[in-house]
Design brief:
Layout (H helix, E strand, L loop, with lengths): L9 H9 L6 E4 L3 H10 L5 E3 L7 H11 L5 E6 H5 L3 H9 L4 E7 L2 E2 L5 E2 L8 H8 L3 E5 L5 H9 L5 E6 L14 H14 L1
Parallel strand pairs: 1-2, 1-3, 3-4, 4-8, 7-8
Antiparallel strand pairs: 5-6
Helix pairs in contact: 1-7, 5-6
């Protein structure tokens, strides 16, 4: 079995895939993806970034998509966090909310716990896992020429979509984000009511 390649720069590929972040209510996983999204949104009100609750982003995104069917919901999670809760993909597939998109930024490492290699660098394929759970619209993006197709999948269509973005194991953007839970919660509530 050929092991996957991780060649894209997350600081370029994540913004290119997402486009206008203001179009979404965003739930981000912890570690790198929270920094990716804080940098992209300017730590905006439409971002609910996780801290310390590994494995929760996908299910929080599902609940948000079901509670706010009129809004686009984007979960941006990492391979390590998603591996902590693969069962979430099965539940999401069964519910299949039309407004939910999942972007998994896969660098093949557990960035939060010491940068050990994750299962994805050893051959586990999270796009195939998502498809196997029943998510009908999935893609893997491994090179720049595939970004437009991945971006379309996040923007268009009806039903949950899953995009796996393979990136180099480099640092995410350096962006200081608010870590006060009550401030973040209140800010996000404002975005929910304003949209």
């Amino acid at each position: 079995m050929a092991l996957p390649e991780f060649v894209l720069d997350r600081r370029e590929a994540v913004p290119a895939l997402i486009g206008r972040s203001e179009d979404y209510l965003i739930v981000s996983g912890l570690a790198g993806t929270s920094k990716d999204m804080a940098a992209l949104t300017g730590d905006g009100a439409n971002l609910f970034a996780m801290a310390g609750a590994m494995g929760g982003a996908a299910m929080i995104g599902l609940g948000l998509a079901l509670a706010r069917p009129e809004r686009r919901v984007l979960v941006v999670t990492g391979d390590g966090e998603l591996l902590m809760n693969l069962g979430a993909l099965a539940t999401i597939a069964v519910m299949n909310p039309p407004n939910l998109r999942i972007l998994c930024v896969d660098n093949g490492h557990y960035g939060e716990t010491g940068y050990q290699k994750s299962h994805t660098s050893l051959g586990a394929d999270l796009e195939r896992a998502a498809a196997g759970c029943g998510i009908a619209r999935t893609r893997t993006v491994t090179q720049a020429s595939e970004i437009p197709d991945g971006a379309r999948l996040l923007r268009e269509g009806n039903g949950t979509a899953f995009v796996l973005l393979r990136v180099k194991p480099t640092d995410p953007p350096a962006h200081k984000r608010t870590l006060d839970p009550s401030s973040c919660r209140n800010r996000f509530r404002g975005a929910l009511q304003g949209g």
